[in-house]
Each structure stands twice: as structure tokens, then as C-alpha cells.
Amino acid sequence: MDEQEFVGLLSALLEPDTQKVKAATSQLNKTYYTSPASVTALIHIITSHDRPELRQLAAVEARKLATKHWPAVPEAQKAQLRQQLLESTIAEEKPLPRHSKARVIAAIAKVDLVDGQWAELPGMLQQAATSQTVSHREVGIYIIYTLLETMPDMFQENMGPMLTLFNRTIQDPESVEVRINTMLALSELVMVLDTDEDTKSLKSFQNTVPHMVKILQSCIEAEDEEHTMQAFDVFNKLLSYESAFLNLHFGDLIQFFMQVAAKTEIDDEVRSQAFSFLMQSVRYRKLKVQSLKVGEQMTRMCLQVATELDELPQDEDEISPARSALGLLDILSESLPPSQVAVPLLKAIGPYVQNSDPSHRRAGILALGMCVEGAPDFIATQLSEILPLVLHLLEDPDTGVRSAALNGVARLADDLAEDMSKEHARLIPALIKNFDLALQGMRNSKAGTKEHELTTHILKASCMAVDSLIEGFEQEDAARYVNELVPRFAMLFDHDDYKVQMAAVSAVGAIASASESAFQPYFEKTMQSLGRYISIKDSEAELELRSIVLDTLGKIASAVGAEAFQQFVQPLMQSSEEGLHLDNQRLKETSYILWSTLARVYEENFEPFLQGVVKALLDGLEQEETDAEVQLGAEASDLIGQEVTIAGKKIKVAGANGKNEDDDDDDAIIQALMEGDEDDDDDWDDLGAVTAVAMEKEIAVEVIGDVLTHAKSKYLPYMQKTIEVVLPLLDHTFEGVRKSAVGTMWRAYACLWGLAEDSGMQKWQPGLPLKVKPTTDLEKLGDLLMKGTLALWEEEMDRATVTDINRNLAATLKLCGPAILAPSATSDSSTPLEQVTSILLLLLQKQHPCQKDEDGLDEGEALEEESAEYDWLAIETALEVITALAAALGEQFAQLWKIFETPIVKFASSQERFERSAAVGTMGECVESMGAACTPYTQRMMRMFMKRLTDEDPETKSNAAFATGLLCLHSTDAKEVLGNYNSILATLEPLLQKQSATPSEHEARLLDNAAGCVSRMIKKAPQNVPLEQVLPRLVELLPLKEDFRENEPVFDMIVSLYQAQNGVIQGLTGKLMPVFEQVLGPPEEQISDETKEKVQQLVQFLHR
């Protein structure tokens, strides 16, 4: 081997000449790296060359070749090579070559130790790690760390002695390098520590945690950035392991990281890392965080840090402590109950929004906006206090505060659309005023100045606030503002800032969508203005704008209807199909969504486009993802499929691949060496985001569901291929795709069910075995789908996906009955019904995988406490499945009620109003479905309903009235039911009083349900109700205003009393005639066709 040429080729790799580097790489690979002698030559360079960068490069190359060639190196040379390598590494003064050499030792040891060679190495390293010489200790510990990283199980047998060593070296009095490398080594060693079996070692590890905190603290104080980030990395890793490692000190860690995050004297990047740890803690250890009751303290800290936010909104990708604080608030409100976040925040923001310092006023409203998504129900109850505050800030003299207030309106509207829309008369004028002021300010200021930027931002924020707000308006309310809003926003369609253009275009889409036919006068002009943007493609900004335009045009199509929009469909479809090939993810996804909208508008008339649309969507679903997937280091494999927060940014973990394997990116390392990059080649692996392809698939699957639902029979030619492509996506690694796939598959089932019924299949009847058998195709699909859904439902960790499975099953059971519950010929030992029941029970008991902390540990102390609203959704939708099961099984459900009764009754007694309300409503629905089979449960149910009839929450009270009436009607336990009539009537009497001429939605619903309850009681036993007193009051409430469903029992009872020739009802005919007239008129949905027929016959009889 020509050593001189070999060294020359290696040196060429370090030259800033790409051609030379390529030529040298090619020759090295062909001539030298095929032979074991290359390893010997590289070790010679590593141990003797005078250029440190060449020593480092040789070490990088040797490490990659060791696994392949070291076994073939002559045995006679190995001992000397090992010795030279070890001595050279210990003597190496430069840190980067030293680290690279250590990795060569680890690579060789990985081969040798497995073969029973180099047995003296661990002892030599232990000796080096406890040497009197600092540099020896540094190298000894670093080599141990690299060995642990490569083969952690090597030290498993010596767990005790290793931890004893690390407990000593982590307190090294002279070297931060030794202390940090000990932290790194510990984070690798504990991967093979069995916390259940080896409690002594666990305790020994836990003893190191306070020392780790001291190390991080001293690195922060010394402004030692490199070691600070390494220490943060260790804490982040430990957080991704099972909770036993940090549990003992978890409360202290949270306090320490909160102090770091809050301290303005500390470097921003360090503070952002502390926020990152807190975010991950709340997300992955939320039950523990909840039990520590630190939510309020964290919330207040975030509020204070948010005052540091710059007046001008930063670039979205820029991380700062203030932005991280707002991000943490978002996660806190989503993960913890309102009492720990939203309640203390609302108490705390008062002084902030009244502070003379604009940065405090800004922080107050921005913090409030961050909490809406996580606690919408609670925030909705406080809107009467929040809104005056928001309206006041919309008039603030400071532009930055007004901008934040507009952001607050948008966030409130996103999650409380209906509640916010009721305040349109106050909100829309305030938004228009902000828009007008900003437009004037922008025209009067010079481009590039701070004032111009701020007013431009207000312009954009006004559009975005209207966009979010108007989506929740009733059509007639939205129609009132079309003339004021559309001309204003249309002026910005050709604004020179494309972000302003996008905000204006999107807002016009929202206005069209909400105002429907009232948008007609602006239809043609808007189409002319926006039509020119559907083909722009010269820059990324143009493609972004084009995607927003497509979205808006879809909304306009929905507003004006199929006929008016017909002439624009063809060019729009062409634009969207071209958009798929312009390499812009947003445009691609918007094209898909446009197809969904047009399918909704044109339904079966969308057929001409189906072939192209379905092909494009299915092609999108069959794309490969592996190339684009960013891999994740094996040490974070626990997090696969989860969302983590790194440096204040939400990142999706894509998959795992052990680090420092042989597939290193040579070019990247050589590039780093050429540029003199001081970063180590063993930098911790990046965590990969969810691939764009996976997110695209999520949208494509959902759009397929929309298209097949609306195209109905026209979709049949594509149904089989669709099922073949979509069904396997139930196992996709990204939960967004799994969730969409579940929804689309059940929509396909419902579509086929509807078509079968249209073709003569009988309507389903409750109960098993099935009284009406579905078609063979439906049976097969139902069987396949149920198997896939049950497998996913049982193990799914993502709460939103479980919630969606619940919703889909509930909707399918209500629409298609019990067919999917029937055991198939290929059923396992347990039937689908048994599996559904056991999963629902887990959800009700908060024991489902999606309800536990990430490591699956059951933190009972927190479980018994209140839930975060987001957590409650999984239970609330499980209750929906239970009511749907009851509907599908009818009286047979009485057997299942035995199983569900205890957990549901427990929720009915909860401290949380939304839990009581949902549980009582569920009980009522189940009684209705069971009919007389509810009788054995009458006593316990009656007791619960009577208690809830006096509940402080109007929604719960309303549901209790509904449930009580049904129990009285259906139960055959006459003694229990009739014995309670007087008590029920006494409790309902005040509820039947109209509180005001214009009752609120809650009051109106309560009146309606009370009326329904009394009507059912009269129907069951008229002789037990004082009709002379009750009927006149009941008639005054008619027709019902809010809950039309309760019109059924009311008019059914009235008809039956007339049939019985009851004198009291006959005496009220004069008052009832106008009521009959109203209820027989619009809106159609006031009463069912069956009841309408009875009322019409009664009216004809009374007219005789």
C-alpha cells in the first residue's frame, strides 16, 4: 500500500475544491477502502500525523471501516494498534480529534468484545476515568460514553459499579468535560436499566439527578453554550424514557426549569430550551404535572414572560422566550384542567390589560387567546366578562395592542364561533374601524418604516379577525355586513404585500360562505378580480396566493350555488390539476380541498371530473414516504408517532434509526472539516418533522370521503379501488392519516348502505341477531372495517384519533343499525359487541392507552381529579357511542346498561358541569332506546334525575328534565314512577315559568325540555297530573323555540287528550289553534311528518 499517496488523497478531501474531493473519494473507495490494510494505515495517521484536522478525518473514516475490516486485520498487529490508539487518544490535546478517536476505539471494541477480545479495555477505561490527571479522566469517561452509545448492554452486568463510578465522576472538581460526559454516559446507561427489577441501581441513578441540575446551572452561569446545550439534551432524553428515572425529583426539576425560563438575565436560547423541557413535561407527563398543582404558577410565569414580545410580530420560525411562553400556555390549557390554567389566567390578566405599559396589555390579550383552544367550554362561560375587555383593547391607542386584540378576536372566534357571533353588532364595527384606521395610516406612512409595518399588520389582522368571526354567523347576520366588508377587502386584492392580499382574499371567501345568497351582487366582480390569480406561478409567493384564491373560489361556489357557478368550474378544475405539479405543498392540498367543495356543490353532477379526481387522489395516497422521512435517533424511540417540542417548536417524530452507524453522511463531515466547523461529528440527531407527503395524504383521504359521500352512486366504479388503497392506511405511522382513513372508510360504508336502501333493502331494526340482513358486499366491508377499526381503537395513543373513531362508530350505528356488531363467520373468540363494550369501558374509566401518560404509568392520584376539556372529548364521544349502541340494540341494551351504569352515574355526580350534563343526557337517550326494559334500573335513575333537576347548571337541568320524562313514560315500575310524580311536578313548576320575553338559548332549551317532560308524564298517567293547573301554563310555552325534538311528546299528548275528550284541553282550543297554525308552517323541522299528520287531522276535526 502506498502510504504517501494514501495520505495525499486524504489531505485532498480537506481542500475547498469539489472536483478534487470527488476524485480523491472515488480513488480511496476503489483502491484503498476495499482492503483491511486501510484500517491499519488510518490508525497510523490517527496516532502519528501532526495535522489535527487530518487526524480527525482519518478517525472518521476508520470508524466507518472498522466493522467491515477490523476482523481481517492480522492478529499479530491488533494488540499494538489497540495500545497505540488508546495511548494516542488519552494524549490527544485537541477535543475534536480526541472525540473522533474515542469513537474508533468504540467501533473496534464493538467487534472485539463480542469475540471475547480486548477484555482488559473496560478496566483500563475505569482506571483512566479515576486517574489523577484531568485529561485522562476526560478521555476515559468520553470513551466509556461512546461505548455505551454503541453497545449499552455491554455494561449491563456491571450496572452497580458503573453507577458508583458515575456518582463520583459527575462531581469531578476540576473538569466540566468530565461532568458533562458523565451525564451523557448516564443517559445511555439507563436505557438498559430495569427499573422494576433493579431498584438499587434506580436509586443510585436518581442520586445523580441533583448533580445534573447543578452542572446545568453552573454551565448557564458560566455562559458555556456548548455544555449547556448538551446538558439540556440529556434532560430531554431522560424525559423521553420511562418516568421512574425523573419522578423522585420531577417537582424540583419543573421549579428549576421555570426559574431558568423566567430569568431575563439568561441568554434567550437557553431560556427557550428551558421552555422546551416544560412543554414536553406538560405534554408527556401531564398527569404528574397536574398532581403537582404547578399549572397556576406556570401560567403566571408565562404571562410575565409574554410581556417581552416584540411590538412587531416576528418571523414565524423565530424562537424567543416570549413566543415559547405563549406556546407553553397553549399546551397547558390543552393538557391541564381549567382550574389550573384558564381560571388563574383570567384572574391574572386584569391588571395586565389595564397596565399603562402597552407590552403588558399586549401580553394579557395574547395569553388569553392561547388558552381558548384548550378550554373553550370554560372560556365560553366567561365571555360576558372577556368581551368588554377585548372591545376596549380594540380601541387602544397603541397599534401593537390593537394588533394583539385582533389576534384575540380571531382565536376566540376559531373555537367559540357560535358564542362570538352573538356579539356581531359590537364586534364587526370595531373591526371595520381598525381596518379603516390602518388603511389610512398605511397610506400616510412611508414604506419600510416601523409605523408602515405596524399598520400593514393591523390591516392583515383585521381581515383575519373577520375571516374567523364571520364563519360562525347565521346567514341573515352575515348578510347585514356584506356591503360594508366586501368592497373594503376587495380594494386589497392587488395590494403589493402578498400576505395582505392573501388575508383579504381569504376573508372574502369566509364572507361569501357565511352570507350565501347575499353575496350574489359581488359575485361576478369578485370572479373577474380573482380569476387572473388562478394561473400565476412565477414565485413561491404567487403560488401561496394562488392556493388561497382557489380556496376562496370554492367557498364562493358554495355560496352562489351550482347553476350560477357553472361557467367557472372547468377553468378552476384545470388550474387545480396543474397545481398538483407545481411543487408547492399548500397549492396541492388546496386543490384537493377545492375538489371536495365542488363535489359538495355539484353532487352527482360532479361525475365528469370523477375519473381524474379519484386517480389524482389515489396516486397521492400511493406515494412513497421513506425517502423524505427524517429518521430519529434510537434513544428517542419512545416518541415515535408523537409530537415533541424542541427549542420551542412542535416537531413530529417520524421514526427511529440508531445513530453513529456506518451510514454517516460523508459529504457533510468532509464539508464541516473543510469549513473548519467546530461542531463535533457526533452531534445529537435531529428530530424529524412529519413529512409533507404524510400531511398531504391526510387531506387526500379526507377529500375522498367528501367526494364519495356527495357523488353517491356515480362513485361506485371507483369504490373497490378506493377501499383497497384506503383500508391499509388505518396502520399508517402518522395519526392524521389514520384518523382521516377511519372517517373515509366509514363514510364509504354509509354511502353503500344508503344506496342499498335506495335499491330496496329494508330499513334496519334494533337488536341481535339481525332482523334485516345487509347485502353480501356490505357484510364483507363491515367485517373488514370493523376488524381494522377495533384493532386501531384498542391501541391508539392519539386522543384525537380515538375521538374520531368514537364519532364514526356512533354515526354508523345510528344510520346503519346493529349490522356492524353482528359476529361474522371469521370472528375471533370475542364478538365485535364484546370488544366495543370493553374499549368503551376503558375510556369511561380513563384507562385507555390514549388517556395515560406516555410511558403508560397509571398516576391514580391525578386520574380521580378533573379532566382537561381536550381529555374529556374522548369520554364525551365514548358516551355518544353508548347512546348509539342503545339505539342499535333497543331493549337488549338493558343487559349492557349493567356494565356502563356505574361509570356513567359517577360522571353524573361530577364536580364538572359538562360531565354531569353529558352523563345525564346519555342516561336519558339510553332509557328512550331501552323502552320498558329500563324498568329494573328505575329507582337509581329516578334518584339521580331528581337530584340533577335542581342542578345549578341549566344544561344539566335541561337534560335531567328530558331524561325524567322518558323514564316516567317507559318504566313499568308504577310504584316508583307515580310515587314521584308530585315531587317531579313541584320541581318542574318553577322551570315552566318564562323568565323573560326573550329567553337565552339555555333558558329556552330548559323550558322546552320541561314541557316535554310534563307531556310524557301526562301521556303516561293523565289522572296523576293536575291538568287544570299544568295545561294552561304548558300551552303558553308553545310552540317550542329551541329543542324541536320535544315538540313530538307535547303534540302527541295534546292529540291523545282530545281523543279522550278531555275537558281541560277542549277548553284551551282557542289558545291552541294559532299554535297549531305555527307548528304546521315553516320551519319544516319543527315536527316530524307523522306528528304533523296527527295535528292536521286534529285541526280538521276541530274546524267541523
Structural features, described:
Strands 1-2 form a two-stranded antiparallel ribbon. The longest helix is centred in the C-terminal third of the chain and has 24 residues. With 1104 residues, the chain is mostly helical. About 6% of the residues have low confidence. The chain contains 56 helices and 2 strands. The protein starts with a helix and ends with a helix. It is 69% helix and 1% strand. The chain is globular, with a radius of gyration of 35 Å.
Average of per-residue pLDDT values: 89
Helix content: 55-70%
Main pleated sheet: 2 strands, antiparallel
* Tally of DSSP β-strands: 2
Spatially, the strands of the biggest sheet line up as 1-2
Number of helices: 56
The radius of gyration over CA amounts to 35 Å
Shape: globular
Structural class: mainly alpha
% residues in beta strands = under 5%
Distance between the termini: 118 Å
User: Which blocks of ≥5 consecutive residues have pLDDT under 50?
Assistant: 627-689, 856-863
